[in-house]
Amino acid sequence: MPSTPRPRLARFADLAALSEAVAEETIALCRSRQAEGAVPCLVLTGGSGGAAVLAALAAHPELRTVDWRRVRLLWGDERWVPAGHPERNDRLADETLLAAVAHDPALVHRVPASDSGLDLDGAAAAYAELVDGLERIDLVLSGVGPDGHVASIFPGRDDLLSATASAIPVRDSPKPPPERVSLTLPALNRAERSWLLAAGAAKAEAVAGIVAPGPETLPAARLAGSAETTLWADEAALGAQ
Protein backbone atom coordinates (compact mmCIF):
# COMPACT_ATOMS: atom_id res chain seq x y z
CA MET A 1 0.00 0.00 0.00
CA PRO A 2 1.43 3.48 -0.82
CA SER A 3 2.46 5.44 2.27
CA THR A 4 0.24 8.33 3.34
CA PRO A 5 2.03 11.63 4.07
CA ARG A 6 2.04 12.49 7.76
CA PRO A 7 -0.45 15.22 8.65
CA ARG A 8 0.39 18.71 9.78
CA LEU A 9 -0.02 18.91 13.56
CA ALA A 10 -2.09 21.65 15.21
CA ARG A 11 -1.71 21.52 19.03
CA PHE A 12 -4.16 22.97 21.57
CA ALA A 13 -4.52 23.06 25.33
CA ASP A 14 -7.91 21.38 25.39
CA LEU A 15 -10.99 20.45 23.36
CA ALA A 16 -12.56 23.89 23.82
CA ALA A 17 -9.57 25.67 22.28
CA LEU A 18 -9.31 23.05 19.53
CA SER A 19 -12.97 23.29 18.56
CA GLU A 20 -12.91 27.09 18.52
CA ALA A 21 -9.92 27.07 16.17
CA VAL A 22 -11.52 24.50 13.85
CA ALA A 23 -14.74 26.52 13.81
CA GLU A 24 -12.85 29.70 12.91
CA GLU A 25 -10.93 28.00 10.09
CA THR A 26 -14.12 26.36 8.78
CA ILE A 27 -15.84 29.74 8.61
CA ALA A 28 -12.82 31.24 6.84
CA LEU A 29 -12.82 28.40 4.31
CA CYS A 30 -16.54 28.81 3.59
CA ARG A 31 -16.17 32.58 3.19
CA SER A 32 -13.27 32.10 0.79
CA ARG A 33 -15.11 29.58 -1.36
CA GLN A 34 -18.26 31.72 -1.46
CA ALA A 35 -16.18 34.74 -2.50
CA GLU A 36 -15.13 32.62 -5.49
CA GLY A 37 -18.81 32.05 -6.31
CA ALA A 38 -18.75 28.43 -5.13
CA VAL A 39 -20.97 26.42 -2.79
CA PRO A 40 -18.65 25.01 -0.11
CA CYS A 41 -19.04 21.27 0.50
CA LEU A 42 -18.34 20.03 4.03
CA VAL A 43 -18.45 16.48 5.41
CA LEU A 44 -19.31 16.52 9.11
CA THR A 45 -18.44 14.04 11.83
CA GLY A 46 -20.07 12.75 15.00
CA GLY A 47 -18.51 11.99 18.36
CA SER A 48 -17.31 14.36 21.06
CA GLY A 49 -15.01 16.26 18.70
CA GLY A 50 -17.68 16.73 16.07
CA ALA A 51 -20.19 17.88 18.69
CA ALA A 52 -17.72 20.40 20.12
CA VAL A 53 -16.90 21.85 16.69
CA LEU A 54 -20.58 22.21 15.77
CA ALA A 55 -21.30 23.94 19.08
CA ALA A 56 -18.32 26.24 18.55
CA LEU A 57 -19.53 27.06 15.04
CA ALA A 58 -23.02 27.89 16.30
CA ALA A 59 -21.57 30.23 18.95
CA HIS A 60 -18.90 31.86 16.79
CA PRO A 61 -19.29 35.65 16.42
CA GLU A 62 -18.52 35.45 12.69
CA LEU A 63 -20.96 32.61 12.00
CA ARG A 64 -23.23 34.79 9.87
CA THR A 65 -20.43 36.10 7.68
CA VAL A 66 -21.12 32.84 5.80
CA ASP A 67 -24.33 32.39 3.82
CA TRP A 68 -25.24 28.97 5.17
CA ARG A 69 -28.05 28.74 2.61
CA ARG A 70 -25.22 28.17 0.13
CA VAL A 71 -23.24 25.52 2.01
CA ARG A 72 -23.55 21.81 1.20
CA LEU A 73 -23.39 19.44 4.19
CA LEU A 74 -22.87 15.68 4.31
CA TRP A 75 -21.86 13.18 6.97
CA GLY A 76 -18.94 10.78 7.09
CA ASP A 77 -21.12 8.11 8.63
CA GLU A 78 -24.51 7.61 10.22
CA ARG A 79 -26.10 5.14 12.62
CA TRP A 80 -28.89 2.99 11.16
CA VAL A 81 -31.69 4.30 13.37
CA PRO A 82 -34.90 6.23 12.61
CA ALA A 83 -34.89 9.88 11.53
CA GLY A 84 -34.63 12.19 14.53
CA HIS A 85 -33.26 9.45 16.78
CA PRO A 86 -30.90 10.82 19.47
CA GLU A 87 -28.12 8.50 18.26
CA ARG A 88 -28.07 9.92 14.73
CA ASN A 89 -25.03 12.06 13.96
CA ASP A 90 -27.14 14.59 12.08
CA ARG A 91 -28.95 15.43 15.33
CA LEU A 92 -25.75 17.12 16.53
CA ALA A 93 -25.97 19.57 13.63
CA ASP A 94 -29.74 19.99 14.02
CA GLU A 95 -29.32 21.07 17.65
CA THR A 96 -26.39 23.45 17.07
CA LEU A 97 -25.33 24.82 13.70
CA LEU A 98 -28.57 24.26 11.79
CA ALA A 99 -30.62 25.68 14.66
CA ALA A 100 -28.52 28.86 14.56
CA VAL A 101 -28.57 29.73 10.85
CA ALA A 102 -30.87 29.90 7.87
CA HIS A 103 -30.00 27.01 5.57
CA ASP A 104 -31.29 25.20 2.50
CA PRO A 105 -32.59 21.72 3.43
CA ALA A 106 -31.92 20.62 -0.16
CA LEU A 107 -28.19 21.09 0.50
CA VAL A 108 -28.24 19.18 3.81
CA HIS A 109 -27.62 15.65 2.58
CA ARG A 110 -28.60 13.29 5.37
CA VAL A 111 -27.90 9.58 5.20
CA PRO A 112 -31.25 7.81 4.69
CA ALA A 113 -32.69 6.65 8.02
CA SER A 114 -33.86 3.17 8.96
CA ASP A 115 -37.48 4.35 8.56
CA SER A 116 -36.84 5.89 5.13
CA GLY A 117 -38.28 2.92 3.22
CA LEU A 118 -34.81 1.80 2.11
CA ASP A 119 -32.95 -1.16 3.53
CA LEU A 120 -29.36 -0.76 4.73
CA ASP A 121 -27.86 -1.72 1.37
CA GLY A 122 -30.19 0.64 -0.46
CA ALA A 123 -29.36 3.51 1.89
CA ALA A 124 -25.63 2.99 1.35
CA ALA A 125 -26.09 2.79 -2.43
CA ALA A 126 -28.17 5.98 -2.45
CA TYR A 127 -25.56 7.87 -0.45
CA ALA A 128 -22.76 6.53 -2.65
CA GLU A 129 -24.61 7.81 -5.72
CA LEU A 130 -24.98 11.22 -4.10
CA VAL A 131 -21.28 11.41 -3.22
CA ASP A 132 -20.26 10.22 -6.67
CA GLY A 133 -22.20 13.12 -8.16
CA LEU A 134 -20.34 15.78 -6.19
CA GLU A 135 -17.99 17.92 -8.21
CA ARG A 136 -15.79 18.76 -5.23
CA ILE A 137 -15.47 18.14 -1.48
CA ASP A 138 -13.78 21.07 0.23
CA LEU A 139 -13.41 19.67 3.74
CA VAL A 140 -13.83 16.39 5.59
CA LEU A 141 -13.95 16.55 9.39
CA SER A 142 -13.14 13.18 10.99
CA GLY A 143 -13.26 12.42 14.69
CA VAL A 144 -10.57 9.91 15.64
CA GLY A 145 -11.73 7.01 17.81
CA PRO A 146 -9.59 5.58 20.63
CA ASP A 147 -8.89 2.58 18.37
CA GLY A 148 -7.96 4.83 15.44
CA HIS A 149 -11.21 4.42 13.53
CA VAL A 150 -12.70 7.21 11.42
CA ALA A 151 -16.31 7.38 10.22
CA SER A 152 -17.35 3.71 10.66
CA ILE A 153 -14.09 2.34 9.24
CA PHE A 154 -12.61 0.24 12.02
CA PRO A 155 -9.10 -1.22 12.31
CA GLY A 156 -8.65 -4.87 11.46
CA ARG A 157 -11.63 -4.85 9.12
CA ASP A 158 -10.23 -5.53 5.67
CA ASP A 159 -13.72 -5.45 4.15
CA LEU A 160 -14.14 -1.84 5.30
CA LEU A 161 -10.56 -0.75 4.62
CA SER A 162 -10.51 -2.10 1.07
CA ALA A 163 -14.01 -1.00 0.00
CA THR A 164 -14.06 1.01 -3.22
CA ALA A 165 -17.67 2.21 -3.37
CA SER A 166 -18.11 5.73 -1.98
CA ALA A 167 -20.46 4.56 0.79
CA ILE A 168 -21.02 1.10 2.25
CA PRO A 169 -23.30 -0.68 4.70
CA VAL A 170 -21.71 -1.70 8.01
CA ARG A 171 -23.47 -4.52 9.81
CA ASP A 172 -21.28 -5.44 12.77
CA SER A 173 -19.73 -2.27 14.11
CA PRO A 174 -17.79 -2.93 17.33
CA LYS A 175 -19.51 0.18 18.70
CA PRO A 176 -23.30 0.20 19.09
CA PRO A 177 -25.50 0.42 17.17
CA PRO A 178 -24.05 -2.34 15.00
CA GLU A 179 -25.62 -1.20 11.71
CA ARG A 180 -24.42 1.97 10.00
CA VAL A 181 -23.74 3.61 6.65
CA SER A 182 -20.20 4.91 6.19
CA LEU A 183 -18.23 6.76 3.59
CA THR A 184 -15.10 4.85 2.59
CA LEU A 185 -11.45 5.84 2.44
CA PRO A 186 -11.59 6.64 -1.30
CA ALA A 187 -14.58 8.93 -0.75
CA LEU A 188 -13.08 10.66 2.30
CA ASN A 189 -9.79 11.13 0.47
CA ARG A 190 -11.50 13.01 -2.35
CA ALA A 191 -11.51 16.04 -0.06
CA GLU A 192 -9.18 18.95 -0.64
CA ARG A 193 -8.75 19.27 3.12
CA SER A 194 -8.88 16.44 5.63
CA TRP A 195 -8.97 17.50 9.28
CA LEU A 196 -8.70 14.86 12.00
CA LEU A 197 -9.97 15.74 15.48
CA ALA A 198 -8.52 14.09 18.61
CA ALA A 199 -8.97 15.23 22.21
CA GLY A 200 -8.48 13.49 25.55
CA ALA A 201 -6.05 10.94 26.93
CA ALA A 202 -8.17 8.07 25.56
CA LYS A 203 -7.07 9.12 22.06
CA ALA A 204 -3.32 9.16 22.85
CA GLU A 205 -2.57 5.71 21.45
CA ALA A 206 -4.47 6.46 18.24
CA VAL A 207 -2.70 9.80 17.86
CA ALA A 208 0.67 8.08 18.26
CA GLY A 209 -0.36 5.72 15.45
CA ILE A 210 -1.19 8.69 13.21
CA VAL A 211 1.95 10.69 13.94
CA ALA A 212 4.24 7.65 13.57
CA PRO A 213 2.33 4.86 11.78
CA GLY A 214 3.38 1.29 12.52
CA PRO A 215 3.14 -1.76 10.26
CA GLU A 216 -0.63 -2.02 10.89
CA THR A 217 -1.71 1.40 9.66
CA LEU A 218 -4.77 2.73 11.48
CA PRO A 219 -7.72 3.92 9.39
CA ALA A 220 -7.15 7.45 10.69
CA ALA A 221 -3.56 7.36 9.43
CA ARG A 222 -4.83 6.60 5.91
CA LEU A 223 -6.72 9.86 5.50
CA ALA A 224 -5.16 12.45 3.23
CA GLY A 225 -6.61 15.58 1.68
CA SER A 226 -5.40 16.49 -1.79
CA ALA A 227 -4.27 19.94 -0.59
CA GLU A 228 -4.02 19.63 3.20
CA THR A 229 -4.16 17.05 5.97
CA THR A 230 -4.17 18.35 9.55
CA LEU A 231 -4.37 16.55 12.88
CA TRP A 232 -6.03 18.89 15.37
CA ALA A 233 -5.17 17.49 18.81
CA ASP A 234 -5.12 18.63 22.41
CA GLU A 235 -2.30 18.12 24.91
CA ALA A 236 -3.96 15.11 26.53
CA ALA A 237 -4.29 13.29 23.21
CA LEU A 238 -0.76 14.18 22.15
CA GLY A 239 0.86 12.89 25.33
CA ALA A 240 4.62 12.83 24.71
CA GLN A 241 4.31 13.62 20.98
UniProtKB/TrEMBL annotation:
InterPro entries: 6-phosphogluconolactonase_DevB, 6PGL, Glc/Gal-6P_isomerase, NagB/RpiA_transferase-like
Pathway assigned in UniProt: Carbohydrate degradation; pentose phosphate pathway; D-ribulose 5-phosphate from D-glucose 6-phosphate (oxidative stage): step 2/3
The organism's place on the tree of life at top rank: Bacteria
Keyword Hydrolase applies: yes
EC number: 3.1.1.31
Keyword Hydrolase: yes
Class of this enzyme: hydrolase
UniProt entry keywords in alphabetical sequence: Hydrolase
Reaction(s) this enzyme catalyzes, per UniProt: 6-phospho-D-glucono-1,5-lactone + H2O = 6-phospho-D-gluconate + H(+)
Coiled coil: none
GO biological process: carbohydrate metabolic process; pentose-phosphate shunt
Domain Glucosamine/galactosamine-6-phosphate isomerase: 14-232
GO molecular function, one term: 6-phosphogluconolactonase activity
NCBIfam families referenced in this protein's UniProt entry, alphabetically: pgl
Task performed by this protein: Hydrolysis of 6-phosphogluconolactone to 6-phosphogluconate.
Family, as annotated: Belongs to the glucosamine/galactosamine-6-phosphate isomerase family. 6-phosphogluconolactonase subfamily.
The name this protein goes by in its record: 6-phosphogluconolactonase
Native source species: Leucobacter massiliensis
